[in-house]
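Justification of resources, computational component.

The compute hours requested in this renewal are based largely on the per-chain cost of generating structure records like the one below. Each record pairs the submitted sequence with a full structure-token output. That output is archived, and it is also reused by downstream analysis tasks.
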Amino acid sequence: MEGHLAWAAREFSVELIGQPLHTSRFHSVGCKVLDAGQDAWLRVVYDDPDWGDGDYLGSNVAANEIEGVPKPSVKQWREWEDNGRRMRGEVSTFVADAAISTGMAPTVEPVPSDRWLTDLDRALQALAAHPLPDNGVDATYVNDGIRAFFGIEVDATVVPWTTAHCDLHWANLTAPQLVILDWEMWGKAPAGYDAASLLCATLMYPSTAARIRRTLTHFLDTPAGRVAILAAAVRYLRFADGGELTDLALPVRQLGQTVIKQL
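The structure output for this chain reads:
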């Protein structure tokens, strides 16, 4: 991957000036670069059929059209083949502030400012107002997961769906200035799904989780929001079944049971 990163830097005529940063599954690699004397970010990712359905490699570029949400913009991109594997390189605007966590669930309690929470609320409202795309969360995946983990029948398609980031957690959020990173998975989801996903990722820290819930209550405390919480819970419980985020399994399941009673 670092060889592809160096090759892409030459193709884009940018200068690598930072240390390469790999994602946990080595699905992508990125590095700070100089682009015509300006700080930028170069990322290389490969197409993996196990990673997701649809043309998700183009999602970061497609997200350029989203307005009112603090996020990087892709300035240059191209694709190439490597022994039958589809590769993609992107040069994006540089984000100076670091992600709050290196993983979906932080190992140290995040303490966002009130202004940061307000900015997040506004960003999620602007995102939800964006025209609904065709791709996104799979309703069958959600319905099957709710049946498997909670033993009830819920049809996620009967509630409103809106545009969502679909992977909102602490590793995709920066501070002190809010920027939402990694738009590879964005698409449609049950209304409130992003708020529900972040809430689930925060359940190990009840104080911060309560602040998230108060700020985003208009996303969460609705019939659609409760279905969105179950949809997010399913995703986290699937991670736990695979040996990841196991500390969240019990609180996420308990949250799901509470929401079921409300439904």
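The chain has two domains: 2-93, 114-262. The mean pLDDT is 95.
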